[in-house]
Specification:
Helices cover about 35% and strands about 30% of the residues. It is of the alpha+beta class.
Length: about 140
């Protein structure tokens, strides 16, 4: 009887530990993707996770082709998130576009908000996109 009780207790405790571990999962919180144009526009994607780790995937017309892992400090990560909050990222339009052909598209996502930036986006959004690029560049040089 005591052995059965200990087995059941062990099962219950392990279920509780598993549940607790799942609540601290690493999530994708920032993504920046630049797409093709008819010319030599850089094609790549930057993904940044809640722990500061990141994955860069360079496809074409970039210095780093393939997958590169990098890491941002908590300060750098918070800089992006704070800047997004300051410019009202969550309240921006979901798409900025005009009837012009042959421009690259930038997709930017922060947490659950995704914006398609083809042309005509506010300068503050362009600055946020450039900040993400700059922090990635800095991270791979360190």
């Amino acid at each position: 009887m005591n052995k059965l009780f200990l087995i059941l207790l062990g099962i219950l405790l392990s279920c509780g530990l598993t549940k607790k571990a799942n609540t601290s999962e690493i999530e994708l919180i920032i993504s920046l993707q630049r797409t093709a144009c008819f010319g030599t526009c850089p094609i790549y994607k930057i993904e940044i996770f809640s722990d500061g780790s990141g994955i860069y995937t360079g496809t074409r017309f970039v210095e780093n082709i393939g997958i590169t892992k990098f890491s941002l400090s908590e300060t750098q990560l918070n800089l992006i998130l704070t800047q997004a909050e300051v410019i009202g990222f969550t309240n921006m339009q979901e798409e900025y576009s005009e009837p012009i052909s042959d421009l690259p598209t930038t997709f930017i996502q922060i947490k659950n908000k995704r914006i398609r930036d083809y042309t005509g986006a506010p300068k503050t959004l362009k600055n946020l996109e450039n900040l993400i690029d700059q922090l990635y560049q800095k991270a791979i040089r360190e």
